[in-house]
Design brief:
homohexamer; alpha+beta; two-stranded parallel sheet; two-stranded antiparallel sheet; about 30% strand
Chain lengths: ~60, ~60, ~60, ~60, ~60, ~60
């Protein structure tokens, strides 16, 4: 039943997403218990113009 | 003032969204009180490649 | 699989929460289809000192 | 380390986003302390068909 | 209508929160337009045992 | 820079949280690249009266 939300910069491949959710689900079950089927993971691909660190959008960095 | 966020798989029609927000607003006012105008609902259409259950992305299921 | 997050001011009773989640689950299944078991709802009770509208915390309103 | 999420109707320009994140970062450091580099801000551009107030989607308003 | 969520380490005073929401509302209206009344801000006070950076909970740092 | 939010039922120990954030950070760096220091994880402990599956609060299940 644990629910994971992952916000990451856009551009990751499906292969990376597949591996990431498989590994996080495995780790979650290992540490918290429960069944894999009860682990939901939602990914948000964030555009560089929508993420700022230190007051500067990542789309503005060179 | 209650604020609802709904995450659902992409592909729902505008008609479904219209009906869903109307019904949820009605139910919210009925149970919690307050005015309909104070109920905000935000929908996120999640791509199948961005939602995993049981360690497998929904885009990978047949 | 739709997931609902509800943010509401603290102070609602368990009876209100029970009714609200039952009704939202019913409405969700009616409009979007799927099984009730696939509908998750998470409630956040927000303290009045943590919610601002118009630049003023609700704890500061008389 | 404070993390800000901003949900706003789609259609804002990059110039508005640049100014908004710069100002919020400045205000955050001024009030909470810490370094600008520790302030992250994530923006979500919400489509009018995905935001409802008072039970009506903003895409349905004239 | 823009909605802000702020996640910050627990321990901030009401005075800091009051100033922060007033300033963010002012900046939001200045940059995005709209009325102050349409700006909602929700704060989450995060416990040090619930925030990790670099794989270490902040409650474990000396 | 990826940011993880984990919602899980209340009651987990600090030891479980320590292990979980260490493992998720390791997996994240392994799959997505970047430095461990850029991985933030925020945990929300959800009360059983605030989580519903299938229209029933977990506090109401026996």
């Amino acid at each position: 039943m644990p629910t994971y939300h992952i916000e990451m910069m856009e551009g990751r491949t499906i292969e990376q997403k597949k591996k990431l959710v498989a590994e996080i689900t495995r780790v979650s079950v290992e540490v918290l218990g429960g069944l894999p089927e009860s682990v939901d993971i939602l990914i948000t691909d964030v555009k560089r113009e929508n993420w700022s660190t230190g007051g500067v959008l990542w789309s503005e960095r060179s």
